[in-house]
Specification:
- The strands form four sheets. Strands 4, 5, 7, 8, 9, 10, 11, 12, 14 and 15 form a ten-stranded mixed beta sheet that branches. This protein has a three-stranded antiparallel beta sheet with strand order 1-2-3.
- The chain has helices at 40-55, 63-71, 80-101, 105-108, 128-141, 185-203, 219-228, 248-255, 269-277, 293-306, 321-333, 349-352, 378-382; strands at 3-11, 17-24, 29-33, 117-125, 145-150, 180-183, 208-212, 236-238, 260-262, 283-284, 310-311, 340-341, 353-355, 358-360, 363-365, 374-376, 393-396, 401-402.
- The protein is α/β, with parallel strands linked by helices.
- The structure holds 2-keto-3-deoxygluconate and magnesium ion.
C-alpha cells in the first residue's frame, strides 16, 4: 500500500479545526486532527509545506517508522506545532490501519479494557447559584464527574466561565487580537473553597468534582489552595502552576493530598517524564492531538502506568471530533485510564464531521466502525471558512503580564 495524497482541510463549523486527510492507492482514507487553538495556520503550513510532500509514495502501514521518520528525522523537533503535525499523521495512519483490518481501532490496541469511557463535563457559573443550576442539568443528563468553575467576585472575566449553558464555548475570544483579562490571586484563593462547599452541600460526596486552576498560581499558593480544598475531596486540581518549573510540584505535594492533573500543553514523553517518575502528579492530561498521536500517547500512558498515574486526556471543544474519536479508542483500551474530558462541540459540528462514537449519560464509546469512526464531509467543510481567533491573555490588576 502507498500514500497517494495528503491534504489539509481547514474549516470552522463553530470553531476552527485543521484536519489531515491521507489517501492510499487502495482507496483507503485516514483522518487526523491537527488543530492547535489560535495557532491553526502554523500547523496547516507545517503540514502542507514540510510534511505532506514527505508522505507521498510511503507505506501507510509502517506507523512506527513514520513516527520516527518525522520526529527523529526533523532536526528542529518537538514543540506544539511540530508535534501536532506528527500527531495528525499518526492518527490518520492508525485510521487507515483499522479500516484495512476491518476493525475499530480499539481492537488493534488490545481490545476493550472496560465497557465504556467515563467522562467529566464542564459546569460554570457567573455566581454560585448559577453554577448549581448547571451542575443540576449535568447530573440530570447522567454525568457523575463535573468540572466546576465560578467567576471570582470582583474580576470582570474568570477562566472557564461562559455564563451560558453547559458546553458553551468561551474560548477563544473575539478575533485575531487577544482579549486581555485581569487576575487577582488573593480574591481567587479566598473564594475557591466556597464553590466546592456549595456543591458538596447540595450533592454530598457521590459526585466527582474537578477544577482547572489554569496555571494562575505560584507553588506555595497552589499548596495553599490544595490544602484548603482537601475536605471537599476533589477528583483533581488541574494545572495549579505552569509546568515548565516541574520541581514546583514537589513543593505542592509536600503540603497537600489534593490530587493533581497536568499536561494538556505537553507534547512529548520528555515533558511528562519527571512529573510521572517522581510521582508528582496523579493524572496525565496529554492528548492524542498534541502529544504525538496514538503511538506516542500510548508510550506516555505506559510510563504513567508504571508509577500509578492515570490518564485524563484533554478534550476541550477546540480539539476536533476526530481527536475525540481517537481518544475514546485509546481510553477504552489502556489499563490505566482515569477519565476523559468532554466538552462537546459547537452546534453544527455534525454538518461537517460524522462520528460513530456515542454518549449515554456520563459515558462514551467509540463505536464499532472500522478505524477511528469519524469522517469529514469536504463539501460541507468548504461552507465554513477559517475564522481567525486568539486565546485571551492575562494581566494582574497592576498590568503585569500573568499566565492565562
Ligand atoms: O485551547 C485552550 C483550551 O483547550 C484550554 O484552555 C482548555 O484548559 C482547558 C481544559 O482543561 O479543557
Ligand atoms: Mg485545562
Amino acid at each position: 500500500m502507498k500514500i497517494t495524497t495528503a491534504e489539509v482541510i481547514v474549516t470552522c463549523p463553530g470553531r476552527n479545526y485543521v484536519t489531515l486527510k491521507i489517501t492510499t492507492d487502495e482507496g483507503l482514507t485516514g483522518l487526523g486532527d491537527a488543530t492547535l487553538n489560535g495557532r491553526e495556520l502554523a500547523v496547516a503550513s507545517y503540514l502542507r509545506d514540510h510534511v505532506c510532500p514527505l508522505l507521498i509514495g510511503r507505506d501507510p502501514q509502517r506507523i512506527e517508522d513514520m513516527w520516527q521518520y518525522l520526529y527523529r528525522g526533523a532536526y528542529w523537533r518537538r514543540g506544539p506545532v511540530t508535534m501536532t503535525a506528527i500527531s495528525a499523521v499518526d492518527v490518520a495512519l492508525w485510521d487507515i490501519k483499522g479500516k484495512a483490518a476491518g476493525l475499530p481501532l480499539y481492537q488493534l490496541l488490545g481490545g476493550a479494557s472496560r465497557e465504556a469511557v467515563t467522562l467529566y463535563a464542564h459546569a460554570d457559573g457567573r455566581d454560585v447559584p448559577e453554577l448549581l443550576d448547571r451542575v443540576a442539568e449535568l447530573v440530570e443528563d447522567g454525568f457523575q464527574a463535573i468540572r466546576v468553575q465560578v467567576a471570582v467576585p470582583g474580576l470582570d472575566k474568570t477562566y472557564g466561565v461562559s455564563g451560558g449553558p453547559p458546553g458553551t464555548f468561551y474560548e477563544p475570544a473575539d478575533g485575531r487580537i487577544p482579549a486581555e483579562q485581569r487576575w487577582e490571586t488573593g480574591a481567587y484563593l479566598d473564594f475557591a473553597p466556597t464553590m466546592f462547599e456549595a456543591v458538596r452541600e447540595r450533592y454530598g460526596f457521590d459526585l466527582h468534582l474537578l477544577h482547572d486552576v489554569h496555571n494562575r498560581l505560584t507553588p506555595v499558593e497552589a499548596a495553599r489552595l490544595g490544602r484548603s480544598l482537601e475536605s471537599f475531596r476533589l477528583w483533581w486540581m488541574e494545572d495549579p502552576t505552569p509546568a515548565e518549573d516541574q520541581a514546583a510540584f514537589g513543593l505542592i505535594r509536600q503540603h497537600t493530598v489534593t490530587p493533581i492533573a497536568v499536561g494538556e500543553v505537553f507534547n512529548s514523553i520528555w515533558d511528562c517524564r519527571d512529573l510521572i517518575t517522581n510521582r508528582l502528579i496523579d493524572y496525565i492530561r496529554t492528548s492524542v492531538t498534541h502529544a504525538g498521536g496514538i503511538t506516542h500517547l500510548r508510550r506516555i500512558f505506559d510510563l504513567a502506568h508504571l508509577y500509578g498515574v492515570r490518564s485524563g486526556s484533554h478534550g476541550a471543544g477546540d480539539l476536533s471530533p476526530v481527536s475525540l474519536g481517537a481518544a475514546l479508542h485509546v481510553d477504552l483500551a489502556i489499563p490505566n485510564f482515569g477519565i476523559q474530558e468532554y466538552m462537546g462541540h459547537a452546534p453544527g459540528w455534525d454538518d461537517v464531521f460524522h462520528a460513530s462514537y456515542w454518549r449515554e449519560g456520563g459515558y462514551m464509546h467509540p463505536g464499532e466502525d472500522p478505524g477511528i469512526g469519524v469522517t469529514l464531509d469536504e463539501e460541507a467543510a468548504g461552507r465554513f471558512p477559517y475564522d481567525p481567533k486568539s486565546l485571551p491573555v492575562c494581566r494582574l490588576r497592576d498590568g503585569t503580564m500573568h499566565d492565562w
